[in-house]
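Aim 2, interim progress. The first record below pairs a target sequence with its C-alpha cells.
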Amino acid sequence: MTRARVIRIASTCVLTVILSFGHFVYSWWCSIHFYEWSGGIHKLTSGWTQFGGASRAWAIPLELPGAVTLRLCQLHTQSECNGTFLGQLSMVLLLLASVITAYFISSVLVALVTRQQISWGRFYWRAIVILLGLAWVPVREDFAPVSQYTVMF
C-alpha cells in the first residue's frame, strides 16, 4: 500500500468521525427547530415549555428505520426501552445514519482534495444516500426522532 493511499484512508476515517458528530448535531438542532415551527413546541407564558400536539414532525429519511424501531419498542414494552434489544438496535440505527452520511461526504471531500475521481456508484447511489442523509421529510409525529427526546421523555 502506498503512502498516499494510507493518508487518504486515514483522512477519510478522521473526517468521518468529525462529520458524524457534526451530522448528529445538525439533525438534532434542525429537528428541534422544524418541530417548533410545526407546532410541536410551545413556550408557555409561565416559562414552561409544552411538547407535542403537532400534526407532523420532520425527519431525515436515513434515521427513519431507527426511529420506527424505537417506536415499535415503546409500543411493545408499554414503557421505556432502555436495555432491551429493540431499544439498543434503534439507537445503533439512528447513529448509523450519521456515520453513513459522514463517510460518504468525507470520501467525496478527500477525493476532491486529492484530485481523485469521485466514485458515485452505479445510478449515483452514493449521491442518493448523501441526499437521504441531509434531506428532511414530514412524518407522523410519533415516528420522528425529535418526538423521542421531547414528547416521550
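The second target in this work package is listed in the same format:
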Amino acid sequence: MGTSTDGQICFGVIFEDGTEFPWHSKGLEDWWIEVSGFKPTAPIYDDDGGYINGLRPPETVIDVYYQERREFKKAHPVPFEDVNYCSSEYPMYILAVKRTFLSNNRGYPLTFKPEDLTVTEEEKAALLEFCKKYDLAFQGEPGWILSSYWG
C-alpha cells in the first residue's frame, strides 16, 4: 500500500495551520446534526457517546434512532465540507461550499466542465455567515482554491 497525491479544487476559505474547529472532536457531520437540533424520539447515547446507563437498547429502538437520524440528515444536509489540503499526518483545512469540492486520485483522470465552476452570491454569503456565526477566522477572501492532498 502506497501513498497517493490527490488533486482537489473547491470554492471556499483557507484556514491557518492549527485552527481549532468546533467539530474536530466529533466530526463535521455529527457536530452539524447536533447544532441543527436533532432530537430523536428515543435517545440511545449519553453525552460521552456511550449507551444511556451503559445498556444497549433493543434493536427496534436502535433502528428507530438511526432511521430518524437518516431522515434528519437528509432534511438538514451539511452545507460545507472541511477539505484537508495537506496530508493525513499534518492536516490543514479549507472550508468549502460542499457541492464545489472535486477530488481526484493520482492515476485516474477526471473530466469536468470549467463552466460548472460557479458559486452563487447566496452560497458565498452563507459561507461567510457560517464562519462569522461560529467565530472561524480565515485567511484572505473566499474563492476558488486548487490544492493537493497527500495521504
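Residues 5-21+79-150 form one domain. This observation will shape the mutagenesis plan for the next reporting period.
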